[in-house]
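# nightly structure sweep
# worker-07 picked up a monomer target from the shared queue
# config: single-sequence mode, recycle default, output format = structure tokens
# input follows
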Amino acid sequence: MKQKNNNLTSLDTILDNKYGKRGASKRENWEQEFEAFRLGVLLEEARIKMGMTQEQLAEKCGTNKSYISRIENNASDIRLSTLMKIIQTGFGGHLKLTLKL
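# output follows
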């Protein structure tokens, strides 16, 4: 039987304490930045899994290596149309979005 470790703190509790509850401006900014970071990591992992360099992906998508790098490193906002082009044209995949309310 597993014992509950009462010394653990949930991520939500940490975020609540540092950035405020969900809905607070500071917390929403953090959540948005985190999702942009996650997207960059997902794209980088997909590119590496497909054995492609940033330059190869950029060429397939009609952009340049520095733009792909900025997206992967969370240094650039990405338009939905560009994201779809990377996934569809660059990776040959499909984008599936969900909405959480």
